[in-house]
Amino acid sequence: MVALLARMGQREWAIAAMVAAVLLGLMWYFLVTQPLQGRIPEIQAEVDRLTTERDRGRAAQRALPQLRETIARLDAERQQFLRELPPTEQLGRVLASLAQQARESGVVLRALNRGAGDNQGVAGVRATNLALQVESPFPELYVFLRNLEGLQRFATVSGLNLTLGSSGPAATVDQANNPTINTSLTMTVYTYTGQAQPATQGGQPAQPGQPGGRP
Questions:
Q1: What kind of fold does domain 91-192 have according to CATH?
Q2: Which of 13, 69, 107, 142 could pair with 134 as two cysteines, CB 3.0-4.6 Å apart?
Q3: What is the mean pLDDT of each successive set of 10 residues along the chain, which is 215 residues long?
Q4: Max alpha carbon distance in the chain (Å)?
């Protein structure tokens, strides 16, 4: 092998160098360049995704002051609403209003039971359930339900259940065409029992002496 290399002339060395360069170039292309070219679409997709996230982040950052103002305004409105709830249940007035609405609507109030309600996790608010059972034809029932919306008390109605009453063999044609409906429902009234949190400014609690804070 040494003797062969010693007999090689300048021309042979040049040819060997060119062959070696070609082999190194092919190895570089297949082992380095081609795999990198295959990753170009993946890298471009990742760049596009990151660019989109960057743009969204910048847009959210620009909208942050307005969002804080909106949160502060909604929180102030919520606290104002809570302060307008009555501090006591005043069930006497509520029951009197329900009885009056039943008489004016033409429905028969069969039963009314009081129970604890769900305040939906709102601190400082107590919920009281009033389970009602009324009996009337549908037109009178519809008027009664509409009149409940006009009560001077914030309340919600849930659990509405309608069953058709039995007309019996002696029922008249009008009673058969407009049968009595037995209705059960739950009306929940709310009472404010605690101190409302001070309104916030920019998502932070207002300090005493500033607008929205307590003096």
A1: Alpha-Beta Plaits (3.30.70)
A2: 107
A3: 64 81 85 80 89 91 91 87 78 86 90 82 83 91 88 83 72 70 90 60 42 35
A4: 132
